[in-house]
Design a protein that fits this description.
Blueprint (H helix, E strand, L loop, with lengths): L2 E4 L9 E7 L6 E2 L4 E7 L2 E6 L4 E6 L6 E3 L3 E6 L5 E5 L5 E5 L19 H10 L17 H9 L3 H6 L41 H16 L2 E9 L1 H9 L1 H6 L6 H15 L5 E4 L4 E4 L5 E3 L1 E3 L2 E3 L2 E2 L7 H16 L13 E5 L18 E5 L3 E7 L2 E15 L5 H15 L2 H5 L3
Parallel strand pairs: 14-18, 18-19
Antiparallel strand pairs: 1-8, 2-4, 2-7, 3-6, 4-5, 6-8, 9-10, 11-21, 12-13, 14-17, 15-16, 19-21, 20-21
Length: about 425
């Protein structure tokens, strides 16, 4: 019996994707988890693995086509079935099932296991059969923690990793939605002043435009500027470059910035949150997953590092380098691009004295970092050269006041100026 595979729910408000490549042919028999399609969505090109084993009966999509969540991508027949491929009018391929010589085998009693591509990849790496994993995610979805627990041979580890749940307080009776709708006016006829060229927006650029417009429209941005004296931190990085390289890691300022921001977020959790305007509530996250802006050829992409507050700097540097490489190669998994609670964007390599970045909705704050420069500083009555790093903390003025932002920025600066404490996770 034909089994359709649809574009799954991508989460976080994503409703569509663009087909980049079709990696299978009609009539081909493939195994579960085999590469099926390559799509571009949420600022990255990712592979969608097959959710089941069987024969590809019909491919319903083609490259450059935009598809929406719930739309059928591929229809599978049972692997024992046979198909006939023919070319109809206009060269369109059509398939029709041949009557098998023997009765077809019944469909397996267990269907495809609900799991994200990243989780499936983790299971392959750890040698775990997803059918044997006890699922704890919503809708029976297998999570990364489930796979790791199965690999360890015990579900106790999974229970320890499961995030604590807290009762949700009911919204006060006076709570009301905070919303505003703006209609963009029509553009003038630019042709009346000279020659113009119209260029269609790529799927990636359209996604960026929509998200930036959403953020700038619904969030009242306010920015606090500060500077950190990173002279001692720079010396720590230089002293440990060779030792880090011996471990296959390149130490960078960004990894220290991530650690400083993550530890400061534990002190100031209102910046590690999202505003539920409809409910009139602030959703404070008890995990610290930081997004890092990475400049790729196709545009600015923000992958996410998990549990940054709990990891040493050397591990963050290793993960960041590998993740940034996958992003630039267009190989980042969809799960690596979502779930962030706070974003850091470091434009220091490109120059400039500062910037005011737009908040990555639905987060409530973003840290911008410019190029560090040697400047004269008065210390103990003497003018000495120090390496100063410009910082800009942009945050949602609905959830925090200027004093809150200043204290949070100071917590980041304090850690950057005391790298010994930063390395100890203090």
């Amino acid at each position: 019996m034909p089994r359709p595979f649809v574009l799954p729910d991508l989460g976080e408000g994503l409703t569509e994707a663009e087909i980049v490549k079709v990696l299978v042919r009609e009539g081909e028999v493939i195994q579960e988890d085999a590469p099926l399609l390559e799509v571009e969505t949420d600022k990255a090109t990712v592979e969608i693995p097959s959710p089941m084993s069987g024969r590809v009966e019909t491919i319903h999509v083609s490259p450059n086509q935009t598809v929406r969540v719930g739309q059928v991508l591929v229809t599978f027949a049972d692997a024992a079935g046979q198909t006939r491929t023919s070319v109809g009018n206009g060269g369109a391929r059509q398939t029709a099932p041949e009557r098998p010589a023997a009765p077809p085998r019944p469909a397996p009693s267990t269907g495809p296991v609900p799991a994200t591509p990243a989780t499936r990849r983790l299971a392959r790496e750890l040698g775990v059969d997803l059918h044997s994993v006890r699922a704890s995610g919503p809708g029976g979805r297998v999570t990364d923690a489930d796979v790791r627990a199965a690999a360890a041979g015990s579900t106790a580890g999974h229970a320890a990793q499961a995030p604590a749940t807290t009762a949700t307080k009911p919204a006060p009776a006076t709570a009301r939605p905070l919303a505003m709708t703006i209609t963009e006016p029509p553009l003038p006829r630019f042709e009346q002043w000279g020659e113009v060229e119209r260029q269609p927006l790529s799927h990636l650029r359209r996604t960026i435009a929509e998200r930036m417009t959403l953020s700038a429209t619904v969030i009242p941005h306010v920015t606090h500027f500060d500077r950190a004296d990173i002279t001692d931190l720079d010396a720590v990085i230089l002293r440990n470059l060779d030792a880090a390289r011996a471990q296959g890691v390149t130490l960078t300022l960004t990894s220290f910035l991530l650690k400083a921001a993550a530890l400061a977020l534990r002190e100031h959790p209102q910046f590690n949150a999202s505003l539920d305007a409809a409910a009139g509530e602030l959703v404070v996250k008890r995990y610290v997953h930081l997004g890092v802006a990475v400049a790729a050829e196709r545009g600015l992409i923000v992958p996410v590092l998990r549990d940054v507050d709990a990891k040493p700097v050397i591990e963050l540097a290793r993960e960041l380098a590998a993740l940034a490489a996958r992003v630039r190669e267009g190989k980042a998994a969809l799960d690596e691009l979502r779930g962030g609670t706070f974003t850091v964007t470091n434009i220091g390599a490109l120059g400039g004295t500062g910037a005011i970045p737009i908040i990555n909705y639905p987060e409530v704050a973003i840290l911008g970092v410019a190029r560090a420069r040697q400047e004269p500083v008065v210390r103990d009555g003497q003018i000495v050269p120090r390496l100063l790093l410009p910082l800009s903390l942009t945050f949602d003025h609905r959830v925090a006041d200027g004093a809150d932002g200043a204290r949070f920025a100071a917590a980041i600066v304090r850690r950057l100026e005391h790298p010994d404490q930063l390395l100890l996770g203090l």
